[in-house]
Amino acid sequence: MADPKGFLNHGREVAETRPVGERVQDWNEVYVPGSLLPIISKQASRCMDCGIPFCHNGCPLGNLIPEWNDYAYREDWSAASERLHATNNFPEFTGRLCPAPCEAACVLGINQPAVTIKNVEVSIIDKAWETGDVAPQAPERLSGKTVAVIGSGPAGLAAAQQLTRAGHTVAVYERADRIGGLLRYGIPEFKMEKRHINRRIEQMRAEGTKFRTGVEIGRDIDAAKLRKRYDAVVVAAGATTARDLPVPGRELKGVYQAMEYLPLANKVQEGDYVTTPVSAEGKHVVVIGGGDTGADCVGTAHRQGAASVTQLEIMPRPGEDRAPGQPWPTFPMLYKVTSAHEEGGERVYSVSTTHFEGDEDGNVQFLHLVEVAFVDGKLTPKPGTERRIPAQLVTLAMGFTGTDRDNGLVDQFGLDLDERGNVARDGEFQTNVPGVFVAGDAGRGQSLIVWAIAEGRSAARGVDRFLTGASDLPSPIRPTDRSLTV
């Protein structure tokens, strides 16, 4: 145990953010560099090393949280890094991007603010990179088996790294021009600088993983032919079919899916553009969708110099404390103020878009909405609440409905889908096609980064067993496992 009285002696302190006026002028991460290390030992000491650590239940990776909290408290960074990597391939990703269901399940959180698990995690991994504790782990011998991984998001990268370390020859196919999937082009730079992805890719290259960018399976290479070239295939293509908003005026110029808008801003940071082809500069921006992707659009619009930013959510505003029907240790629906929301803009709840209004040139100018309320369990418009708001750039951030069907990958493989439109798989993460496995959002549906990594690790075990008859690789979850919610 770290400090038996740590949770009594110290309150919760989180990473310090840079002033709003400073950070909206650049695209660097919002946190003050180096602000965590002076406080992180005390924060790690608040971990109680519970008899039953429910943080393990909250985390699908099964992270050994009390153990690396203890090492962080003692400032034994090498041991902390070893424990961290024992269950998580990419803690620098989860430590920055995961909404931390582990903290929602923290036993201390029953009657106090939870342990800052995410902050401890990111402190450990950043220190590990600084001290050289993160090194390539090349396999001692090769199996002679080959694996193709389709998609380079967190699920695909986790599966590829696990299988490479098991001795298989792995090639990762990515349809974009750079590796990383939505980590690369869906997550803004101010939430995670892409140097964190780049150095993991270099580690994986040193271990033996091969990467093929700008290759879309289904269009550039026939999926059935790919299956013949490899001993096994892992489909980790994500759930990239965005939910649309079929209302009058949707066709107007200036209405975009979030994943049409955000990648262009990231490409500016990569040096592909001097200025983004779709900019919020000087415009009244409306973001439809109240989740994390919507918040990413809000923060991006602020940095592009939007005249105003309004975020719309059809559901009621969540409370700031756990509702009676969302007891500990479930992951509660709470009102969150992200760094993007701290930077300005308006958030409007319980409203639904009825239509868009444009000018004579076909550019969107206004968004018409109506307030809604639950009536007999259904969201119903409230008469007399219709109004319009300025909208010269609209982003749709309403989630995703399944994996891409248009590129032919699903049909060329002959994959079965489940009732939700995801690729069906068995208990080993194998599809109906022998030797073809699925991991991440393509099989689970839209989910969190921590679940994607857990899926990649678990699918890797299934592939390893398929190729060799047995496997020592860990499998933290089953395909049917779900978040601890009510």
TrEMBL record:
Residues 38-69 form the 4Fe-4S ferredoxin-type domain. Its EC number is 1.4.1.13. The keyword 4Fe-4S applies. GO terms for molecular function: 4 iron, 4 sulfur cluster binding; glutamate synthase (NADPH) activity; metal ion binding; oxidoreductase activity, acting on the CH-NH2 group of donors, NAD or NADP as acceptor. Its cofactor is [4Fe-4S] cluster. It holds the Pfam family Fer4_20. InterPro entries: 4Fe4S_Fe-S-bd, DPD_II, FAD/NAD-bd_sf, FAD/NAD-binding_dom, Glut_synth_ssu1, Glutamate_Synthase, Helical_ferredxn. SUPFAM superfamilies: alpha-helical ferredoxin (SSF46548), Nucleotide-binding domain (SSF51971). The keyword Metal-binding applies. One of its GO terms (biological process) is glutamate biosynthetic process. It catalyses: 2 L-glutamate + NADP(+) = L-glutamine + 2-oxoglutarate + NADPH + H(+). Keywords: 4Fe-4S, Amino-acid biosynthesis, Glutamate biosynthesis, Iron, Iron-sulfur, Metal-binding, NADP, Oxidoreductase. Pathway: Amino-acid biosynthesis; L-glutamate biosynthesis via GLT pathway; L-glutamate from 2-oxoglutarate and L-glutamine (NADP(+) route): step 1/1. Transmembrane segments: none annotated. This is Glutamate synthase [NADPH] small chain. It comes from Streptomyces typhae. The gene is gltD.
